[in-house]
Write a structure and sequence with these properties.
This protein has helices spanning 9-34, 38-56, 65-96. It has 97 residues and is mainly alpha-helical.
């Protein structure tokens, strides 16, 4: 009984290079985000939150500007923590691969 196992060393090397590049890209992205000052970082997360809230809360655009800002501000801590967990999980995954 013979088993025919085909190895593709070229494919393995290709995947290693791809995952190494993805790992490096995430590291650069984390570095760039960590170089932002507090005001820039708040604007970045607020912009993301506004897009998400606008998508999932149909009445967001009809809200007064003060209520919109209050809603975005109230979600910033959760979004920032989720962003940290997500980006570092992605970094760990790509580095492990």
């Amino acid at each position: 009984m013979s088993s025919t196992k085909t190895n593709h060393p070229g494919l393995i090397i290709l995947f290693r290079v791809i995952f190494a590049l993805l790992t490096l890209a995430i590291m650069v992205y984390i570095f760039m985000l960590s170089a932002e000052n507090a005001q820039q970082s708040s604007q970045t997360s607020a912009g993301l939150i506004e897009k998400v809230v606008d998508t999932f809360v149909p009445s967001y655009k009809e809200m007064p500007k003060g209520e919109q800002e209050k809603l975005v501000f109230s979600l910033q801590d959760v979004v920032r923590k989720a962003a940290h967990i997500t980006i570092y999980a992605a970094l760990g995954f790509f580095a492990a691969c």
